[in-house]
């Protein structure tokens, strides 16, 4: 693959990511993606095989798959596992807001593309549930149900996404990602009954 091909493919992906986040998949045409990318409209078919394949390619290129491989490669305690996953989720949703918005939109709309989204999300949240159950079994987490606890962890880890559109005076653009990740992790672990020194 030559450098110009790689460059145009990247431009198409970045344009699609921006437009899908702003207008939704169905509200975005191939022509709009190509206009945004400064590319000939035939290049979407040539490089990707159509708009649906561009959507799939966004997840292949921009979803932080390293997160799960890092978590499964290392043997870590349930506390450290929850700490790392919550930290990564907050960082991902804050640093790649376009991909995060696409994920949220597709889950809300429940289209046939939602299966692609869950293909990437399910391993992460299944790992959370696994860590919660291990922590409960080991007496590290003071929870009654790992399923209910998982809902609470997900809710806290993604609360800033909902706050973005709320009327509570949050200045989403000025949120400090580092501080938000740190405080979210602390809040989750306290909610699970973990001593802050663990």
From TrEMBL:
SUPFAM superfamilies from the UniProt entry: Homeodomain-like (SSF46689), Tetracyclin repressor-like, C-terminal domain (SSF48498)
MF terms (GO), sorted A to Z: DNA binding
Record's keyword terms, sorted: DNA-binding
Keyword Transmembrane helix: no
GO BP terms, alphabetized: regulation of DNA-templated transcription
Pfam families, A to Z: TetR_N
InterPro entries, per database record: Homeodomain-like_sf, HTH-type_TetR-like_transc_reg, HTH_TetR, Tet_transcr_reg_TetR-rel_C_sf
Residues annotated to bind DNA: 29-48
Annotated HTH tetR-type domain residues: 6-66
Record flagged with keyword DNA-binding: yes
PANTHER family (UniProt xref): HTH-TYPE TRANSCRIPTIONAL REPRESSOR SCO4008, TRANSCRIPTIONAL REPRESSOR
Protein name: TetR family transcriptional regulator
UniProt organism field: Paenibacillus barcinonensis
């Amino acid at each position: 693959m030559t450098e110009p091909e790689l460059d145009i493919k990247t431009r198409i992906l970045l344009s699609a990511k921006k437009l899908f986040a702003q207008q939704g998949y169905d509200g975005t045409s191939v022509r709009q993606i190509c206009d945004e990318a400064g590319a000939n409209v035939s290049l979407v078919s040539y490089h990707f095989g159509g708009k649906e394949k561009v959507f799939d390619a966004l997840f292949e290129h921009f979803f932080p798959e390293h997160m799960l491989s890092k978590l499964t490669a290392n043997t870590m305690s349930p506390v450290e596992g929850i700490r790392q996953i919550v930290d990564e989720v907050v960082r991902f949703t804050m640093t790649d807001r376009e991909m995060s918005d696409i994920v949220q939109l597709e889950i809300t709309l429940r289209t046939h593309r939602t299966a692609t989204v869950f293909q990437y999300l399910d391993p992460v949240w299944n790992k959370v549930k696994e860590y919660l159950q291990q922590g409960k079994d080991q007496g590290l987490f003071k929870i009654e149900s790992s399923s209910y606890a998982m809902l609470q962890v997900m809710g806290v880890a993604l609360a800033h996404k909902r706050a973005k559109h709320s009327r509570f005076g949050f200045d989403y653009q000025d949120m400090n990602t580092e501080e938000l990740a740190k405080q979210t992790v602390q809040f989750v672990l306290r909610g699970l009954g973990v001593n802050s020194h663990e």
